[in-house]
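Morning!

As promised:
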Amino acid sequence: MSFLTLTHVNKFFGDAPAVEDFNLSAEQGEFVSFLGPSGCGKTTTLRMIAGFELPTSGTITIAGQDLTYVPPNKRNVGMVFQSYALFPNMTIADNIGYGLKVAGKNHLEINERVDEMLNLIHLENFRERYPYQLSGGQQQRVALVRALAIRPQILLLDEPLSALDAKIRVELRQEIRRIQQQLGITTIYVTHDQEEALSLSDRIVVMSQGRMEQVGTPSEIYSYPETEFVARFVGQINLLPVDVINPPEGLVKVGRQSVRTSRALNRADGGHTIRLAIRPEELNPGFLEGANNLTGTVQSITYLGSIIRVRVDIEGQPISMDMFNERKLKMPVVGDQFPVNFDADACWLI
Amino acid sequence: MKLPRFNFWGLFWGTLALLYFFVPMYGTLDFSLRMQKGLISLRAYQIVLADPQFVESFLYSVTMGVITVIVSILIFMPTTYWIYLKLPKLRPLVEIITILPFIIPVIVYVFGLIRTFSRPPFLLTLSPLGTDFLIAGGYVILSMPYMFRAIDVGMRAIDVRTLTEASQSLGGNWLQTLVNVILPNLRVALLSGSLITFATVIGELILADFLFRPAFGPYMTSIGTTKAYEPAALTIMSFALTWICLGIIQLISRGDTSQQLTGR
C-alpha cells in the first residue's frame, strides 16, 4: 500500500482552478519531484499535503490515515521553505530543537537530537550562532535538519535551492539526496529546475496549468515525453512538422526528405502532419548509411562551453544539434550545406 | 576617489531646521532656570517636583499610559497578525480606520464618548473608575495610528506568514507560534509603538480635561495659566521624557535590525 496518496485532489481559488484532478501514490522512502513552470500548481499541491491549503475536493492520506482536513501542526510533516524561514530570534540549536520543544520533549532528549542533526550536516560548531551569522547554504542545511528533527512522516521541500548560487545549489542537492537516502524518508520536492528534478528524483511529476502532464522516472520523462509540453519543458528538443507517409512502417517526410521511426504509427495519422521529436544530442554530423539523414544549411553556431550547438535549417525548419567540444572537432561554417544523421530509435512522434 | 560634493542648500536648510527647533527650546530652558533673579537655578524644577498635584497627575498619566500600552498590544498585535495571515485584502480598510484619529478632531470624539457613555446602558461617567475605563479606551483609540503602524512595519520586516507556517509544520499551535516566534521578532516594533503611545498619553490634554480626570496634560495647562517659570520647567521635563523614550527605542533596536531582517 502506498505511503502518501493524493486522490482526485482539486483546488480552486474562487473560480480559478489551481490544481485539477491530481492523483499520486508515493511509496515509503521514495523521492518524488513536482516539476513545472511558475503557476502550474506544484507549490499549491505541496501546501495541501502540508495542510496550509485545503483541497476543494479529493483526499490526502499518509500511512493510510486521511489527513485532508487535519491542521498542519498535527500532521507530522516536515517542511523546508525557499526562504529558509529560520526563526531569527533563536540560535541554530533552538531552531532545530523547536519542534521537539513544542512537543513537550525534555531538554536532554532535545539536546541529543540537536547534536545528531548538526552532525548530519557537519555544522557542529554553529550550535550557538544565530541564523544571520550563517551563509545561505548553511541556513538551508539548518532548515533541512530542523524539519527532520521532529522525525516527520514525510519531508516536503518547496524550491529549497532557488535562493542559492549555482555551485552551492549542486552541493546542497547532493547533500539533500544523501540525507534522504540515509534516513529513508518519503520526500516531495517542488522545483522548476529540470536538472534538479532529474538528478534527485526517483519519480517526477511534470505539471502544467494545474494538471499532471506526465509521471515517470527521470529517464522516462526525458527519453519518452508523452506530451509536447513535457518534451519542451524537460531538456532541449527539436520538434519538426512531418507528413505521415506510411504509418505501419513509421515512415514520415520532413519537407522532401524521408525519415523512418522505429515505432509504427497510428493508421489514422496517414496523410496528416504531426511532429517529429528528437533531442539535439541524438543528432550526429555527416551522412551515415542505414541511418536517418537530413541535409540543411548551417544557420548559427553557439559555443556553450563543453558543448557546441549547431543550428541547421532543414527546408525551412530549424533543428539544433549538440556536439561535444573536442579539440579535434571540425567546426562547420555558417551557410554550409550540412548533413545530420540519427537513429530511428532516437526519434519519436508527438 | 571621488570627493563628496559640498551641498550648500542642504546645509542651509538643515541649519535653518535645527535653529527652528533648538532656539525656542533653548529659550524655554534658559527661562526655566531664571526663576531667582540674577541667578541660574533649578528652583522652578524643585517647585514642580514638590507639588503634590504634579506627582498625582504624573502618576495618573503614567498608569493610564501603561494600561493603554497593554490594551493596545493585546488588541492590535493579534488583529494585525490575523490580517497578515488570513485577511490581507482587509489591510487597506484597516489602514484607513487606524488613521481616523488623525482626521476626526479629538474634541468631536470626546463629545461622542461623553454622549454615548453618560446614559444607559453604558453609564460610565458617573464614577471615577468608570471614567478611567472610558479614558483608557479613548487613549487606545487616539494612539491607534502609532501602535498599528509600528506593529505593521515590524510584521513587514519579518516574513510573518512563512515563519508561522514553519512553526506550524514543526508542530507549533497558534499560541506557541505567537509567543515563541512572532512576539520575540516584533520586540523592537512593539517597543517603539509602546513608547510613542506612552508619550502620547502623557501629553494628552482634551480627553482628560473634558472627562475631569487628574492627568498630566490638564495639569500642565492649568500651571501654564497661573505661573510663569514652572510651565517652562514642565515643558523641558516633558521633552526629556519623550527623548528618553526615543533613546530607549534606539538603544534596544541597535544591532537587532540585521537579525530581524534575516527572518525571511
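Chain A touches chain B through 30 residues (CB under 8 Å).

Hope this helps with the figure draft.
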